[in-house]
Design goal:
Two copies of one chain form a homodimer. Chain A has 380 residues and is an alpha/beta fold. The first copy, chain A, has a single domain, classed as Thiolase/Chalcone synthase (Peroxisomal Thiolase, Chain A, domain 1). In chain A, the strands form two sheets. Chain A has a nine-stranded mixed β-sheet with strand order 3-2-4-7-1-8-11-10-9, with helices on both faces. In chain A, α2 links the parallel β2 and β3. In chain A, α1 packs across α2. The longest helix of chain A is centred in the N-terminal third of the chain and has 16 residues. The radius of gyration of chain A is 19 Å and the shape is globular. Chain A starts with a strand and ends with a strand. At the A-B interface, α2, β3, α3 and β8 of A face α2, β3, α3 and β8 of B. β3 of chain A pairs antiparallel with β3 of chain B, so a sheet runs across the interface.
C-alpha cells in the first residue's frame, strides 16, 4: 500500500465571485496547485472533483480548462463533506497504486443561489422547518442546559475564527469582531445570531496527491505532508446518537487516527467544520480533542487560539474563511499544508507535525446525519 | 489485488414512476440486490451511488432505507456514465482490499423534469442549440455521407432493441416496432425521429460487489460473474477526435480489454449506450467490435440480434429498456449477470462468457465529450 503525499496546493480567495463561474474558480485553483507542485500536466493520472451545485460534468470541464482533458474524472457529491470525500477517494487511488498522481479539487458557486441552502426534497425535517440553523440552535440550547454554556462563550468561537481569518488573505471575512459584535448581530435562530453562522460564498481549492516516489522527485518545499489516516462515514440509525455528541464524527475520527497509528491527543492543530459556533465545539469534542462538555471552558482558557496548545481553525474556519461547500474540505488541506511549511505568516501555529481535517454535511431523517469525513496528516 | 465478483443484482422496472421518489426507487433496487446476493446488511462495507439529479446525500438516504445507515457512502456524478462510474469506483474498493463487500447503485427520477434534459450552464454549445439530439442528428448525417448509411438501416437499431425490450419485464417499452413505425414517428432533429431517441424515464438498479472469498461463501447462483477490466476516461482535447469515431470510447475500451487480457473479438455480447440509434453504431465501432463504417451493414446481416454472433443490447438498451441516467450503467451489469446465469428467458443470448458494458455522457465544449466508462465481465 502506497503512502500518500500532498505535492502541491492551490486555492482562490473565498468571496462572492460575482462574474466567475464555478468551473472558472476550479480551473484557477487546480492551475495554482499544479504550479505549486511543479508537476507537468502529463504526470496527472486522474481527478476527483467535489461539488454540490456544479453540475453533471463540472470536473471534466475543470480538467479541460487546465490542460488535463482526457484523464479519468469522477465528480463526487457528499454535501458539505464533498471536498474531503474527493480527497479520500483520490488518496485511495494512490494508496492502491491505481494512480501515481491525482488531483483532488472542490469548487462551488453559492452566492447566486437565492436565500439559504434549501433542504433536500426527501429531508422532511428540513422541509418542515428544522433547517440547519434551527437544528444547531436547538443543539446550542441543549448544550447550555446540560453544560452551562453561556452566550458569551459561544461568541468567543466567532471572535477567535475572525481573528484568524483577518490574517488569511484567502478568507471571505478579514475583519476582527468582538463578543459585543456577535451579541448585537441579527438573530437567526435563538440563541444563534448572524456571526454564529458561516456565510454564503464562492471559491475553489485543489491539492495534488502523489506517491512517495513522486513526492521525492518533485520535492520543492521545505516540508512534505503525508496523509496518514482517513475516515468516511454516514450517520448511524441505531438510536444511540445524541444531539450533544457527534457519533459520526467520533467514528470517522477513530478510523482515521487508528490508520495513522496516532491518538487524538497527538493532534497539534485542526481544521474543523464550524458551520455554526456551537458546531465547532461539538466537533472538536467528537474528534476526541477534549472530553464532551469541556470545549467552551478550554476556549476561554485559550487552548484553541493559534498560540494555544491546540489551535482550531487557524485558517479562520467556515465562520470567517467562508464555506463554498465542495471547496471547504480541500481548503482545509491547503491550510494544513501551509502551516506544515511554516508559511502561514501571522496565523502560523507553533507546532505543525500532526493535523486533522474534518467536514460534515447533509441530513438524512432517521439517522444521525448525512456524511462525515476526517483526514489525519503528518509531516514526513 | 483482489478480483471483483458480482454477488447479487436488483433493479426496478424502468418506467414513469409517478408517485415514487428517486430514493425510494434506489431502496427497492438495493434491497432486491441484497436479497439476490444472500448477503446480510452487516456484511456491506460501503456504497457508491450514481445519480445526476438525486441531490447531495441521496445515496446516504438509500443506505438508511436499506438498513445500511452508518457505512461510508459516496455519491458519484458523471452524467450518463454515473452508474458505471459508481461500479468502477466500488470495484476498485474491492480490488484494493479497502472493502470486502460494496453496493454500487444508480437511481434517477427524470420524468418529473420538464422538457428535454437541459444542457449544463457552461455547455455553451448546448446553450446555443447543439443539444444531444441535434449533435447526434449531425453525426447521423455525416455517417450517411461518409459510409452510405440509409434511413432504413438506422431504424433497424430501434427495431432490434424494441424486439429485445419486448422480452424484458424491466423495460420501459415492451412493444415491438417496425421500420415503418420509426419512419412515421415524429421528427426530432432530421434525420432522427422519435423512435431514434431514448425515452425519459425513472428507475434504479444495484449490484453487490465482493471479493472471491465472499463470492465463494455466498454462492447461490449457477454462475459467478467476475469484473475483469475497467476503463474510465473523459474526452480528449487534442483535436484528433472525430464525430465519426469515438476516441473516448476506444480508449476506455482498450484499457478495460487490456486489464482483462482479452481482445474486443472475445466479446460474446455487449450492453452499449444507445441514447440514439446512430450512437449504438458509433459506440460498437468505438469498442472495436467491428471496423468503423461497418456496423449498420452487419446489422442488416443479423450479427447484433440475440441469436446473432454478437448480440448488442439484449436488454433492449436505452432505446427500449429506458434511460434513467444514473441507473443505466448499473442496469447493464444486471443484464450481463442475468445473461451469464442463463436466466434471460426469451432474450437469452447463446454464448455468455465474456460481455462488455459501456456508457458515455455529458458534454464539455472543446473536448470530445464528458465521460466514458467501460467494464469487461467474464464468467468464472
Amino acid at each position: 500500500m502506497n503512502d500518500v503525499y500532498i505535492l502541491g496546493i492551490g486555492m482562490t480567495r473565498f468571496a462572492r465571485h460575482k462574474d466567475t463561474t464555478a468551473v472558472d474558480l476550479g480551473v484557477s485553483a487546480v492551475a495554482d496547485a499544479l504550479g505549486d507542485a511543479g508537476i507537468d500536466v502529463r504526470d496527472v493520472d486522474a481527478m476527483y472533483a467535489g461539488h454540490v451545485y456544479g453540475g453533471m460534468v463540472a470536473g471534466q470541464s475543470v480538467a479541460a480548462g487546465c490542460g488535463l482533458a482526457g484523464i479519468p474524472v469522477v465528480n463526487v457529491e457528499n454535501a458539505c463533506a464533498s471536498g474531503t470525500t474527493a480527497i479520500i477517494e483520490a488518496a485511495y487511488g494512490i494508496r492502491s497504486e491505481r494512480y501515481r498522481c491525482v488531483v483532488a479539487c472542490g469548487f462551488e458557486k453559492v452566492s447566486d443561489r437565492a436565500g439559504m441552502l434549501a433542504p433536500a426534497d426527501d429531508d422532511f425535517e428540513g422541509q418542515l422547518g428544522l433547517v440547519f440553523p434551527a437544528w444547531h440552535a436547538m443543539r446550542a440550547r441543549m448544550y447550555m442546559n446540560e453544560y452551562g454554556l453561556t452566550r458569551e462563550q459561544l461568541a468567543l468561537v466567532a471572535v477567535k475564527n475572525h481573528h484568524n481569518g483577518a490574517r488569511n488573505s484567502k478568507a471571505q471575512y478579514r475583519n476582527e469582531i468582538t463578543v459585543e459584535d456577535v451579541a448585537n448581530s441579527r438573530e437567526i435562530a435563538s440563541p444563534l445570531r448572524l456571526f454564529d453562522c458561516c456565510p454564503k460564498g464562492d471559491g475553489a481549492a485543489a491539492v495534488i496527491l502523489g506517491s512517495k516516489e513522486l513526492a521525492d522527485h518533485a520535492a520543492r518545499h521545505s516540508r512534505t505532508v503525508r496523509i496518514r489516516g482517513m475516515g468516511l462515514f454516514s450517520g448511524a440509525a441505531d438510536g444511540k446518537y445524541s444531539a450533544l455528541f457527534e457519533d459520526v464524527t467520533a467514528r470517522a475520527a477513530q478510523t482515521a487516527f487508528d490508520e495513522a497509528d496516532l491518538l487524538p491527543e497527538d493532534t497539534n492543530f485542526a481544521e474543523v467544520h464550524d458551520c455554526f459556533t456551537i458546531a465547532e465545539g461539538l466537533r472538536v469534542e467528537g474528534l476526541g480533542l477534549c472530553p464532551p462538555g469541556t470545549y467552551f471552558q478550554q476556549l476561554e482558557e485559550g487552548r484553541w487560539t493559534t498560540d494555544g496548545r491546540t489551535p482550531i481553525n487557524p485558517s479562520g474556519g467556515l465562520l470567517a474563511k467562508g464555506h463554498p461547500l465542495g471547496a471547504t474540505g480541500v481548503a482545509q488541506l491547503c491550510e494544513i499544508t501551509t502551516q506544515f511549511r511554516g508559511e502561514a505568516g501571522d496565523r502560523q501555529v507553533k507546532k505543525a507535525d500532526v493535523a486533522v481535517a474534518h467536514t460534515r454535511g447533509g441530513s438524512v431523517p432517521g439517522t444521525e446525519g448525512g456524511s462525515c469525513a476526517v483526514v489525519v496528516c503528518m509531516a514526513d
